[in-house]
Amino acid sequence: MPVISPEKLIGLQRKAEEVRNICILAHVDHGKTSLTDGLIATNGIISPKLAGKIRYLDSRPDEQLRGITMESSAISLYFSIMRRTEHDASPVQKEYLINLIDSPGHIDFSSEVSTASRLCDGALVLVDAVEGVCSQTVTVLRQTWIEHMKPLLVINKMDRLITELRMSPAEAYNHLTKLLEQVNAVIGSFFQGERMEEDLQWRERVEERVAAAAAKEQERSERKASKMTEGSVTEDSESTATGTAGEFEEKDDVDLYFAPEKHNVIFSSATDGWAFTVRQFAHLYEKKLGVKRSVLEKVLWGDYYLEPKTKKVLGSKHLKGRALKPMFVQLVLDNIWAVYEATTGGNKGKGDPATVEKITKSLSLSIPPHILRSRDSRAILTTLFSAWLPLSTAVLVSVIEHLPAPAAAQASRLPALIETSPGAKHVDQSLRNAVSGFKSSPSDPVVAYVSKMVAIPASELPHNKRRGGGTMTGEEARDLARKKRAEIEKARAAEGEATNGLQGLTEAVGEANLEDAPERSEPEIIENVDPEHLIGFARIYSGVLSVGDSVYVLTPKFSPANPHSKPEPQRVVVTGLYLMMGRGLEALESVPAGVVFGIAGLEGHILKSGTLCSQLEGGINLAGISMGAPPIVRVALEPVNPGDLEKMISGMRLLEQSDPCAQYEVLESGEHVILTAGELHLERCLKDLRERFARCEIQAGEPIVPYRESIVNAAEMTPPKDKDLPRGTVISTTTSKQITVRLRVWPLPPTVVDFLEKRVDLIRQLYSRQKAEAEGTLSADDSVDGELEQDDADELGATTGGLLSLVDFKDNLRTAFAEDKTHSDLWTDAVECIAAFGPRRVGPNILVDRTKTGACQKFLRESTEAGHLDPQTDTTGQEPKTTLTAQDFSDKISYAFQLATAQGPLCHEPVQGIAVFLEEVTVAESSDDEATSREQLGRLTGEIIKTVRDSIRQGFLDWSPRLLLAMYSCEIQASTEVLGRVYAVITRRRGRIISESLKEGTPFFTILSLLPVAESFGFSDEIRKRTSGAASPQLVFQGFEMLDEDPFWVPFTEDELEDLGEMADRENVAKRYMDGVRVRKGLQVKGRRGRDAEKQKTLKR
């Protein structure tokens, strides 16, 4: 096919009905990029022979080397089709523009999938015919569900059923049926979960309205003690409840599922270049069988059979014991299997040229004679299939006919996305209508979403290179020839001058000053550097955006409720617009609504994602919802040459902007740390830093793995340090002997810890409300569910466990405490006495104030309750207090609690699952009579913070301490031959097998296991080496799990001393982890010196 000019593609952007924005989503190695190659070949960009091999959109060298996609890439494709406007009308050519985005399938780059899906209206979801539904398959299906995208299912690698599993057509049909059921089961689980949530919300609304009606009835009955009024009000309340109940409608889920007869399933083999839908075969057999095409489309898949004699279609009930093949097997799969056997030999191992000739004649296909004479059976196979069932035709026709155009997609998708955006109630109605109604005139407001920033070398920008791809005109060729001749003549002249003036050149070199050499060579080095420019990867939803336009950049934290809050959005001028063409860019003057494009001029204004809007008041924030898992792997970086520190810092900032998942931060110790999603993602980031962004040698330290510290009530523990006090109780006095604090540390029940971890969002909102009340910006009548909390929730994005009111939160927390039957008296009224959560005021640790005088404020207090007054002043205007009380140190004790839980005593990692009971705070009178209470408070602040912090740590160590390890959920697909090797690697790295299941109809096992993040580095490479590439793991962060081993354990019973000896021959894994973190942080490590000194006696001299 001839190369399509960019002008042709740019012209099609104006025809919104002929535009499709799609992305390709799948698990890793399921054939996304190979399928994309087949589609790109239709536009003449690459040769059809190289499709599936060249991996055109994998433009990075490491992508080509590893054979996986790491960055989402976009390309615009042209496709034309002959279509009839009416049944009897002659076909007319229609042209379409397909904006295609290829996304990664590896779990480390799942953030790239999120950025791609928001820009598109439809998705091609690929599933390997052999491997079936994998972990990332479920993830991408959930992404299409959340983004309200319409998906098409592509069952790829159908050739593996023939060449690898050597299935018969009937066995393949049964396998495909089960595969389709697996995918539909995933979709059904999403639908069921959503319906249950909607039903719960509907019931809550009904209860609220009934309660409101009952309240009104009571008010009216009090005002008018009339029976008739009461009766009418009762009828009103009943009708209100009935009307509310009638609003709930059951949704039909029939259209959600994949079924070949609905034309939303494509069967393909991207490597062999073929694909088909049921509709294509219905068209082929329409005249041959004499059955209407519409009927054939419905019966070609399913339990339908063809009567051989009468050519009638029979259902399974009418078989009457006859062994007939399903129509899909007889009419579709048998023919495909026959082509493979005739060309590659199938199970026989050798093809049959006579059968190939017979097939080509029966299908009326013309294959070049030199191909038929070729000894390469795959060349014959791919040529035959490309003529019979071309890949691009099946895929692109399905995309055009079954995926929506931008106008239809925005009308169905955008209202729901706007409702979930921050401050949705304050969005301007004109903007809502423009986005949902697809307003595309220059006078309409502009709304565009920037999903990520892409780093492009300056040499790749359109204005810095000559346009490639098209044929040059005669004038361009002559100009180029003149320039080449001039360059050759100059080179020859310079060569002659150099030969004649060799002596002068020698003298010049001898007279040269060495000190001037660096100054002369420095500009040459600067000229060779190819700087990186950040281009926004965007989609415009309404209006027209042109070069030179000025728009507002709305950050992900922007809310239209407070449009001028800091950081206030800034206006930027669009300096360039680009058509994304895979490895290249084409310059644009303007882009209309519904187009995926690149935009320049946002560098320094957008960190990762953002929204462009032509107005600030009432703007829409489409970037306010966080997507993807947070990065878990931290690595400290430093330049090899200390002089390159500024280069490294600027490079890391540039990397943070260009990578959707990478984060850069500076620790308190001064270390420059990069956070990545996994080991492979870390490798890519380091490569980009060294070669593109920083351009200096950088060395990475050991990965910084997060841990958590906790305590348990173990069966065997060392005796309490103070035998006169209960375990965990500490009495401490400040240095000045003026303040005495008694507190008790106790482990929290696991149910309470789980509950608090899921309600971080609500705890943060409660703290925001208290802070606003203290500053006077929130009235006492505002409730927890008010506008402030809603804005905070919007700012946080999607919540983990949903929002609760303060009353419900306290009730649920009491229920969680009540499940601890063993120490129920300890948790009595604990909820009412909670003074703080920690660390960072939202963690799963609580500070409970059990002092008689109430030293600390209640955290879970109602907004109508009066808080503490400033202890140093009085509202009546009296003189300042001369004595200090425990209430004066309320905020200091809370701050000490935050410090103690943020850095635990084991290795200064965050603490989880402890309750600190503040039992008594005694303040003695100062001996210094001249000092005022204010002066005493300033002197005692540091003392009490240090005392309380150390007391909590001391009480923590009175129990049996534990480390919580960050854990990966690991999924591996492996055959029976390598199963034992996979188990050996997992066990050696302290992993734990959760489940093992055999995929029916295949020789592959799916192994699910848990693996510590600390042991995961190098795990993927080791698995691939041990299994010779037959298995590859997918690692997903699962959370934290307790390592049931005391890091301070030493043998002390007679049996333990007899078995292990005084030196404890068994390795203490928890101590090894703890000591590793302490060494990295520069903390003291208590080790044993000369442990094996006695063994030196046996050494030879």
From TrEMBL:
Keywords, comma-separated and alphabetical: GTP-binding, Hydrolase, Nucleotide-binding, Ribosome biogenesis
InterPro entries cross-referenced by the UniProt entry: EFG_II, EFG_III/V, EFG_V-like, EFL1, P-loop_NTPase, Ribosomal_Su5_D2-typ_SF, Ribsml_uS5_D2-typ_fold_subgr, Small_GTP-bd
Region (Disordered): 213-246, 1082-1101
Ranges of Basic and acidic residues composition bias in the record: 213-227, 1090-1101
A Pfam cross-reference name: EFG_III
Gene3D superfamilies given in the database record: 3.30.230.10, 3.30.70.240, Elongation Factor G (Translational Gtpase), domain 3, P-loop containing nucleotide triphosphate hydrolases, Translation factors
Hydrolase found in the keyword field: yes
Domain Tr-type G: 17-295
UniProt cross-references to PROSITE patterns, sorted A to Z: G_TR_2 (PS51722)
Biological process terms in GO annotation: cytosolic ribosome assembly
Gene Ontology CC terms, in alphabetical order: cytosol; ribonucleoprotein complex
Keyword match Membrane: no
Gene Ontology MF annotations: GTP binding; GTPase activity; ribosome binding
Entry protein name: Elongation factor-like 1
